[in-house]
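Minutes, project huddle
Topic: does the predicted pose make sense with zinc ion bound?
PN asked that the exact inputs be recorded in the minutes so nobody has to dig through chat later. Recorded below.
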Amino acid sequence: MATLHSCIFCRIIKGEIPSYKVFESSKVYAFLDINPLSEGHTLVIPKYHAAKVHELPDDYLAEILPAAKKIALALGATPDDTFQYNLLQNNGALAHQVVPHVHFHVIPKPNEDEGLGVGWPQKESNFDALKASHAKILASLENKL
Ligand code: AMP
Ligand code: ZN
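Predicted holo structure (tokens), as shared on screen:
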């Protein structure tokens, strides 16, 4: 696991590695993705080293979505829906996370070919399975909240 010192995104926050910064606050840093899926593809990251979102303190988490909203507005989001985009956040290698420092992608979707492509392998509806899953999650929430 990356340490504070070797983590590429911690080094970007500290200015040790260059980035095209688009927004910064006391707890958040946002910069252009070096290999964009579309023009304006931006990464919003906490100024706190945590690999996965559940490891991040709530005060850092709370500043990320407002920052992502600012980026979306800056990229062209308007009350009509001509500007379309995805917010993406991956946790773990199997879930396509490459850099182990929490990051939210803001990815404009200007057309079919550019931006995020999504696989969505849905299962058939199974209400017995949903009921069992619901009970399991509620029991777990009771223990953890
Ligand atoms: P993920 O697969 O969610 O971990 O995405 C990591 C993202 O970080 C990828 O889209 C990379 O292109 C991007 N990335 C990696 N290194 C840099 C860097 N030095 N500057 C900007 N973006 C980067
Ligand atoms: Zn880091």
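Observations noted during the meeting:
- The mean pLDDT is 95.
- Strands lie at 21-24, 28-32, 42-46, 85-88, 104-108.
No decisions taken; revisit at the next huddle.
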